[in-house]
Write a structure and sequence with these properties.
The structure is a single chain. This protein has 19 helices and 13 strands. The protein is an alpha/beta fold. The two termini are 63 Å apart.
């Protein structure tokens, strides 16, 4: 987004005539009249603001000879502010009861005082060599001349008390009086909170179409320790917000091309910018503008000319809210990371379906499954193997082999139930029902045998495993509340274990129940009948792939 104006300073020059406002008064154009306060208070904001900064600089630079003059400028600026607030009170604008000649008469003396005292202070500063004060004094003179030019309009003469008086006004409505006190007292360095520590590394974007306003705001905030960037238009501000990260935006309302309200709406519509706090700055000073700012999402609203202590306090409060909000977001992000870690750990212990039920608050989880297949794989002669090498090496090799089994189980979408020493137990059809449970386990068993062969070649070992399978109903659930695990119970489990323990190294032994489920897909070699505790003798079979099938 580019700024269409070649220069922000030239994009919106301050008005030097009251003619448009007089015409607006005659036409009953309240919207234009509401901007009159802004037009008059902009140079006043500069007069008061620069005089405050100069008083501080004069103390620091041993230029106390101009302090009385600076205080006089500040006091006269306060008088002008009181006159404008009274003459252009919102109720007078709404009823059209604005007395321009009376306002001009009341402003003449304090304005003349400002011009005179600023000229004297400027001359003294040049003579004493305080060149750092000269530029700001010249800005005060420029602002005073701009204010003076506003009242040199030829359309200014005559009594202008016109408009649409309300019944209350005709009946002698009471003037509510000035909306602001007659100027703020002179400030000291302590008023700027120079001893207070600002939010570390806080970056503030100051947006105002008037160069002198931007200069004043930037210098005030930089002295408080903030890093300040300025923008002269709403478009320029949005581009800078897009390109950088800011902790706070000070946003003027009345600007050319894209005003403060529109810029605020764009910010709140952007997910990346909507949480950046915005303090609106304006000389409009009316309730409607305040309400509109807050409703649009502004954090706060400060009328011009602003009291530096109030502005500092509101900036500090807004930055503190942002700091807490950022802290909360960081905490939530870290919480999500830890939650993800916990969930991954939980899924390493429990099936996903069971973990979801636990997270939902279910305390007792016990399920019956009519059709399932259970498989055991056990390392042959593991005690002898373990005795030949260090415990560390044994566990390292066992972990490598079983991790390979884990990958096979995951790829086949089988449920690893547990490891018992050197035995590995898995199931199919539990806890997620599937009709091909027996075939899925059979394919995994063949892959287990191949994984052992690859493992042996890699490490020059001769490890072997026995595999046993059985199919039938099981009961599955969680045992205990601490160090719990998901386990299976029932005769189907016991028989599968016997299939493995009575099996042969490098072979897959299955029960009659499993054979019936996958018959025709594999080759079966009868082994004989085995005795099983608490059960009748049972025929068993060695499982093999059909010839030519891999």
């Amino acid at each position: 987004m580019s700024d269409p104006a070649s220069s922000p300073a030239g994009a919106h020059p301050p008005p030097h005539t009251l003619t448009p406002f007089l015409q607006a008064l005659k036409a009953g154009d309240l919207e234009t009249l509401s901007k009159l306060r802004h037009a008059l208070r902009t140079p006043l904001n500069q007069i008061i603001g620069y005089s405050e900064m100069l008083m501080e600089s004069a103390e620091e630079n041993n230029a106390r000879s101009i302090l009385p003059g600076l205080k006089g400028i500040h006091s006269s600026g306060g008088q002008l502010l009181a006159v404008i607030n009274d003459a252009l009170a919102p109720w007078k604008i709404e009823t059209g009861r604005i007395d321009f000649p009376g306002m001009r008469q009341a402003m003449r003396a304090p304005l003349a005082s400002i011009l005179t005292q600023a000229g004297h202070c400027l001359e003294k500063s040049r003579v004493s060599g305080h060149n750092d004060l000269v530029k700001d004094l010249e800005k005060i003179l420029m602002a005073a001349h701009n204010l003076e030019k506003l009242f040199q309009s030829e359309a200014y003469s005559g009594e202008l008390i016109v408009g649409r008086p309300t019944p209350a006004a005709d009946e002698g409505a009471t003037d509510p009086g000035p909306l602001a006190p007659a100027g703020a007292p002179a400030v000291t360095p302590e008023d700027f909170g120079l001893s207070a520590q600002p939010m570390p590394n806080a970056k503030i974007l100051a947006v105002d179409d008037d160069p002198m306003n931007r200069d004043m705001i930037s210098r005030r905030l930089e002295k408080l320790g903030y890093e300040v960037t300025d923008a002269g238009t709403g478009r320029e501000a949005l581009q800078k917000l897009k390109d950088g990260n800011y902790d706070l935006v000070l946003l003027d309302i009345l600007m050319p091309d894209l005003d403060g309200f529109q810029a605020l709406e764009f910010m709140k519509a952007d997910p990346r910018l909507r949480h950046v706090p915005v303090i609106m700055l304006t000389a409009l000073d009316d309730v409607a503008s305040t309400v509109r700012c807050i409703e649009a999402g502004a954090e706060d609203y400060v009328p011009k000319p602003f009291n530096p202590t109030v502005l500092r306090a509101r900036i500090t409060a807004s930055l503190e809210k942002k700091r807490l909000r950022d802290q909360e977001q960081a905490f939530l992000a870290q919480l999500q990371v830890e939650r993800s870690k916990s969930e991954r750990l939980l899924l390493n212990v429990l099936p996903r379906a069971i973990a979801e039920r636990l997270k939902a608050g279910q305390r007792t989880i016990v399920d019956s499954f009519i059709d399932s297949t259970v498989m055991f794989a056990d390392i042959v002669g593991f005690t002898r193997i373990a005795a030949k090498q260090s415990p560390h090496r044994t566990v390292q090799l066992l972990n490598e082999l079983f991790s390979g089994f884990d990958r096979i189980a995951e790829q086949r979408e089988l449920e690893k139930v547990k490891t018992i020493g050197d035995a590995y137990m898995l199931a199919a059809g539990v806890p997620v029902i599937r009709t091909d449970h027996a075939e899925a386990c059979a394919e995994a068993a063949f892959e287990f045998l191949e994984a052992v062969r690859v493992f042996n070649r890699r490490h020059s070992l001769d490890w072997g495993i026995r595999v046993g399978m059985n199919s039938g109903p099981v009961v599955a659930g969680i045992i205990g509340t601490k160090k719990f695990s998901y386990d299976l119970w029932g005769d189907t489990v016991n028989i599968a274990s016997r299939m493995e323990s009575h099996g042969q190294p490098g072979k897959i032994q299955v029960s009659e129940a499993t054979k019936k489920l996958i018959e025709g897909k594999y080759e079966f070699t009868p082994v004989g009948v085995i005795e099983i505790r608490n059960s009748s003798p049972m025929p068993t079979y060695l499982l093999a792939r059909k010839e030519g099938k891999k």
